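Hi R.,

Here's the chain you asked about this morning:
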Amino acid sequence: MATTPGRRLRADAERSMRAIMTAAERLLGENPAATTEQIAEAAGVARTTIHRRFASREALIEAMEATAWREMDEAVEAARPRTAPPLVALHQATANILRTKPGWRFTLARSVPLGAEARTLQASVMEKCDAAFHRAKEAGILPPDADAAWARRVYLALLTETVDGMTAPAGPDADADPDALASRLLDTLLRGVATH
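And here is the predicted structure, written out as tokens:
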């Protein structure tokens, strides 16, 4: 089937948006003061292309936040946190996040309040995470008296540290497989670091 001009334009626009966001993520991670002109040059697009797509530099960053949290939400949802066996869901969600999060280090690490769309997506991710931990507790993977909210906080801290190890120059986990890292992370979460 032939591609219609409208569809081709939409695909081109999508590629252009992705190129802009990828360049912005890299440049802003290196220099948070990078300009839209520098981002346009790195993305291989005209500055006017960025201005046509985004009303301002902050609008670009808000779009990046929404895209990053949408991808995180999709990564967690793909693990079927409400229906897969709890340990399987936790492992798969962790591996999926470890494949996704390193591409959005700058965007996901910002300490300013999120825009409305990103905030909604973040809440969805956290709700799915809470559901997975609640099911893990019901299945006996976590002890009955475990504080699921605390377990989630520790889990998120371990995720952040793992991503740092994957993405830092000469990081200890730079070439590690996300599935192997997910197993190590969950083993640490559920059993600690002592030998059993």
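One quick note: The chain is about 70% helix and 0% strand.

Cheers,
M.
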